[in-house]
């Protein structure tokens, strides 16, 4: 297992360039499977989850190569398989996107069900209901989904408005682009990563109305063509570095961001007493004072993102006063809390909320990360703790953050990565 070792107390200062978005890139890679030709994707982060998806593309017969820094050329002219390997779906839930793409392009898909995960149960029932509505025959026996459609027909599909599922929206759209007739998708997710996928599909010739809206209308076409697109900047990575700068008492600028994607996060930083400057594609937070307590409730976009809930949990842990952090999306997303408590945080979980009474100081301790965002949260806690924190499970960080340790070091953090034996990355993904 790899570990990240952090010695706390250093204020972070400087500028960091945010990478392309993990959750934004994975749907684009799946969408490239719909194109019987070449697609170029730029600003692609070199992270483990992207590599897993690329392995998946190769297993299905698509060819790809890096043609420049962060630049991928994908050629899906010919696909040779409609069966996704179990190991790849198991390693990363996002690989389930190939189900919609294969169904759309090949009219069949065999994809293992991604199963449970440490942050929650995470079913795919909305995805399957959408495929069925489009006319696919679906069997989901023995942990494998087999979908077949002699003909895909556009349909009116109503997603559960409480969730506005990101994954189901994308999967259904991928299949609907090449269906006969018109699909109306209601309560679609409006997350920037979904919008980026809608924009790519439109550039490939899909007929989509309502890009970025809660109701998306897709008129099926016979064929898509290749395009060149850029992955959007990773708003979760940006949020992570802004919180790190703020709580360490430093001065951090994140560049290559889309500030319009960051409103909920910026608002909470301001509520915590930090000034956030905005200039072009850059955001800057200046620390120097103890954060004030903030109440947070996670929600679909444009609400506060669940993926940044653990990072803000760390902010709340060292804030002045008591914060209530409510998690409405994934029921088990507080599994970093026990680890944080081991570092001296005062956290009580009551149902779906964490009641966090801020303490003046955290203390370094050995802790274990169980998913990507818990991992970055614990590293952030280490940055402000007294002494040394060893975060086990560094592989999770590799899945979602490009060169996390290198970027922190460039900002002045005392942090290093230590490899131990060959590590097995957990089956959970987000
Ligand atoms: C994606 C993101 C993840 C983020 C999440 C919410 C990727 C690869 N992952 O995950 O980082 O935290 O969006 O913004 O982009 N649900 C069902 N049935 C379904 C589908 C979802 O009940 O068929 C529920 C889930 O259990 C969850 C909620 O809906 O409670 C939202 O899940 P969803 O938006 O689908 O998240 P993911 O696409 O898995």
- Level-1 CATH class name of the largest domain: Alpha Beta
Give the amount of beta strand, in percent: 25-35%
Q: What is the CATH topology classification name of the largest domain?
A: UDP-n-acetylglucosamine1-carboxyvinyl-transferase, Chain
Amino-to-carboxy terminus distance? 20 Å
Mean pLDDT score: 94
Which kinds of small molecule does this entry bind, naming each only once? uridine-diphosphate-N-acetylglucosamine
Q: What is the number of E strands?
A: 25
Kindly report the name of the CATH homologous superfamily of the largest domain: Enolpyruvate transferase domain
Spans where pLDDT lies below 50 across 5 or more residues: 423-429
CATH architectural designation of the largest domain: Alpha-beta prism
How would you sum up the major sheet? Answer: 4 strands, mixed
What does this structure look like?
The protein is α/β, with parallel strands linked by helices. It has two domains: 2-19 and 233-428, Enolpyruvate transferase domain (UDP-n-acetylglucosamine1-carboxyvinyl-transferase, Chain), CATH 3.65.10; 22-230, Enolpyruvate transferase domain (UDP-n-acetylglucosamine1-carboxyvinyl-transferase, Chain), CATH 3.65.10. 31% of the residues lie in helices and 25% in strands. It is built from 14 helices and 25 strands. The model is unreliable at 423-429 (pLDDT under 50). Bound molecules: uridine-diphosphate-N-acetylglucosamine (UD1). Uridine-diphosphate-N-acetylglucosamine (UD1) binds at residues 23, 26, 93-94, 120, 122-127, 163, 165-168, 193, 306-307, 329-330, 430.
């Amino acid at each position: 297992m790899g570990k990240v070792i952090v010695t706390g107390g250093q204020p972070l200062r400087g500028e960091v360039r945010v990478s392309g978005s993990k959750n934004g890139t994975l749907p684009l890679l799946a969408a490239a499977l719909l194109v019987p030709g070449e697609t170029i994707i730029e600003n692609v982060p070199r992270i483990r989850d992207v590599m897993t998806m690329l392995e998946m593309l190769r297993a299905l017969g698509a060819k790809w190569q890096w043609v420049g820094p962060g630049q991928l050329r994908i050629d899906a002219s010919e696909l040779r398989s409609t069966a996704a390997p179990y190991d790849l779906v198991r390693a990363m839930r996002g690989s389930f996107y190939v189900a919609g793409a294969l169904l759309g392009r090949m009219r069949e898909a065999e994809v293992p069900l991604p199963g449970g995960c440490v942050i929650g149960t995470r079913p795919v029932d909305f995805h399957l209901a959408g495929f069925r509505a489009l006319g696919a025959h679906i069997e989901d026996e023995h942990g494998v989904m087999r979908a077949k459609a002699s003909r895909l027909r556009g349909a009116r599909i109503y997603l559960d408005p409480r969730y506005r599922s990101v994954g189901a929206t994308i999967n259904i759209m991928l299949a609907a682009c090449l269906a006969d007739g018109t699909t109306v998708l209601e309560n679609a997710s409006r997350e920037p990563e979904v919008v980026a996928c809608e924009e790519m599909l439109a550039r490939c010739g899909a007929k989509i109305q309502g890009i970025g809206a809660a109701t998306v209308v897709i008129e099926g076409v016979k064929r898509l063509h290749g395009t060149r697109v850029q992955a959007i900047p990773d708003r979760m990575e940006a949020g992570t570095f802004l919180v790190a700068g703020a709580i360490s008492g430093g001065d951090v600028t994140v560049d290559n961001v889309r500030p319009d994607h960051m409103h909920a996060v910026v608002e909470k930083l301001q509520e915590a007493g930090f000034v956030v400057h905005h200039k072009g594609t850059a955001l800057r937070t200046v620390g120097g004072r103890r954060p004030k307590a903030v109440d947070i409730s996670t929600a679909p976009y444009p609400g506060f993102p669940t993926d940044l809930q653990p990072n803000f949990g760390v902010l709340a842990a060292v804030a002045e006063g008591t914060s209530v952090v409510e998690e409405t999306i994934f029921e088990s997303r507080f599994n970093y809390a026990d680890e944080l408590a081991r570092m001296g945080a005062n956290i009580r979980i009551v149902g779906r909320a964490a009641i966090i009474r801020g303490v003046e100081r955290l203390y370094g301790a050995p802790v274990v990360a169980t998913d990507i965002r818990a991992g970055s949260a614990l590293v952030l806690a280490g940055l402000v703790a007294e002494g040394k924190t060893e975060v086990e499970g560094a592989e999770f960080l590799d899945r979602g953050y490009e060169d996390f340790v290198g970027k922190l070091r460039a900002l002045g953090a005392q942090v290093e990565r230590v490899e131990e034996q060959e590590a097995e990355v957990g089956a959970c993904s987000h």
